[in-house]
Amino acid sequence: MERKTRSDAQRNRERLVEVAKEAFTRSGADASLDEIAKQAGVGAGTLYRHFPTRDDLIEAVFRGEVEKLAVAQRRLSETLVPIEALRAWMLLFVDYIAQKQLIAPALNSIVGGPSRIYERSRALIFNAIDALVKRAVKTGEIRKDVDPFDLLRALVGVSHVSWSPGWQESARRLVDILIKGSRPSK
Q: Is the domain of 29 the same as that of 94?
C-alpha cells in the first residue's frame, strides 16, 4: 500500500516547484538549488528528498505548467459556454508558450534533451484542446471540420517569432482570428 503524502510535504513540494520556476526563468539551468531551497523556506535535504537531481526539478516545473493546462480545460468546461471555454484555454496556451520559452534553456540542459518531457506533455495538451473543440462542435459553435491540432499548430507557429517584441499580443489576437474562422458560416 502506497503512503499518502503528508499535506506539509505536498506544500513544500509545490513551493519548491514554484520557486524553481522563477529561478530557472531568471537564471536558467544553473540556478542555485541551495538558493531555491532557501527561498522556498525548506532545507536542502527537503529539496533533494523531493527532487534527487536537478533534472527532476526542471522536469517537475515543466510538467506542472502542462498539468495546469489540463486542469484549466476541465475548470473552463464546467464554468463557460463551449466557445468561450475554448478561447480562454487557447489564451492560457499562449501564456504556456511564453513560460516554456523562458525555461527552455533549463529544459535543454536535461540529460538526453527535453524530447522525453515534451512527448509526455503532448498528450495532455492535445487531450485538453480536443475535448474543448469536440464540446464546441457538439453545440454547433465550431464547424465540424475544425481540427484541434491545427489550432495548436497555429498558436505554436507564432511562438517561433516569440523573441520579437509584442509576440504575445499578436498571439492573443490570433486566438480571436482562429475562433472567428472556426465558427460555422451563416
A: no
Where in the sequence is the domain holding 65, given as residue range(s)?
Answer: 54-182
pLDDT digits (tens, 9 = 90+) for 107-149: 666 666 656 666 777 888 899 999 999 999 999 999 999 999 9
Task: List C-alpha distances in Å: 163 to 47, 64, 72, 159, 160.
Answer: 33, 24, 26, 8, 8
Domain count, the chain: 2
Per-residue cell: 47: 529539496
> Domain check: are 59 and 115 in the same one?
yes
DSSP calls for 59-121: HHHHHHHHHHHHHHHHHHHHHS-HHHHHHHHHHHHHHHHHHHHHHHHHHHTSTT-THHHHHHH
pTM: 0.79
Alpha carbons 161 and 167: distance in angstroms, whole number: 7
